[in-house]
Amino acid sequence: MRIFAYLFVYFSFLNTANAEFDLNSNMSNAYSYCIDLNFSKAEYFLEMEKNINPENGFIYLNENYIDFLKIIITEDQSYFEQQKTFKNERLKKIRRNDKDSPFYLFSQAEIYIQWAFVRIKFKEYFLAAYELQKAYNLLKKNDELFPDFILNKKNIGVLRILLGSIPDEYNWILSVIGLEGSINRGFDDLNSVLNYIENFEKYNIYEDEVIFYLSFLEMNMRNIKQSRLSLLNKIEDCCLSSDLLVFCAARLSNNMGDNQRTLKILEQVKPSDNKIKFYYLDYLYAMSKLYQLNFEEAENSFLRFTSNFKGDNYIKSAYHKLSIISFLTDSIDKRDFYQNKTLELGQSFIEEDKYSENQVKNRNIDNKDLIMARFLFDGGYYQRSLNIIESINQSVLKDYNLAEYYYRIARLYQKLNYSKNDILDAFYQLLDLENSYNLYYFPMSNLQIALEYEKEENDEAALMYFQKTLKYEAFDYETGIKKSAKAGLNRIRNN
Question: Is the whole model's pTM more than 0.85, yes or no?
């Protein structure tokens, strides 16, 4: 009996000793394949590690990465419902691990953050706020215990940026979580993490993830051209084998008005049976072809996206674009069909889908030349766009189209570096019109006028137009436009 007792204590000690966070080659490979969206290969290395060291805490963290990325990319709600039961199970296993490791609290926080983001995708806001609070408290404690643990700053930086950009109606989240949102401080955190991991081989594997966060948040939360260009160059130099970073690079180049560069990036994507299908890249490719006015290729790519993607976001936008292509190519029956699909399918959660649904509901009279000028503008083909605009006889335009006409001229003048007076005159001509349709061109024009005055340090005029922007209500792209106006007010008041 004594021998059995000794054996029991011995094997119990072995099990405890093996409960650690061992970032060995299996775990490094599993993580890298997760970020590369090659989940079958990631699972292969996870199974290898389970056979050797089943208590390794990185197993459960990497399993959560797979669920997180699958759900974010596919928006598959049934998979979300199926997998969310594993969250607490993974947390329990991690809590039995090495409490003296900086990864002990960090891994728990990472899992909470990932599920919070997923819950936001499916509008489970209260649970998301709870999980973000749990994550922050864990990260705060971990930072006290391990002040030199650089990965802590990755998650705290992401939290600061997201909380610093939430709309006023969700300010209650800040008080719940207890973390002060600060977009610039969050970017400083992430950039310091990137600089560190680029110089320390031990953490090199996290480079793609940090670049992804920086890129995604830069194009959604800030408008600093040099930062976007720097990130785009970095991705093109190192990371175009990753579909996640192809997505970031394509979005960055498109936001900078360089559609040719966007197409070049997207055309490097190589289909793989081993990787999860990232169908949103088809949507981006369709948009890029639309910006070239290549309607046939755009239509084919939109149809590929709508046929394969099982989520809700960008579905309304895709069908709306298909209805516009049908209008431009005189396929009226197809236009009606796609407009009905715009109303029937998808969700009005993101700005692009809200806009698409509103356009179909309002049945505004379209002008083919204005539509083509708009697409060329969005692709960065500014002179071609202006040539079309200048060929339009403005006297035949209805009020709705006339507002877009002046708005498009003003924006093209900005892009083509016309004089400030020419730019402002075009915006003022728009603002002299009656806003009968509650169009976003009016608040957006006030915002752009404010930015023009801010450039020349005329703070009084800039403040006035930022404040005018905020007075408009219930228009398309309201969240983004008002966020930019508030950011402008804060910049001037803090000078």
Answer: yes
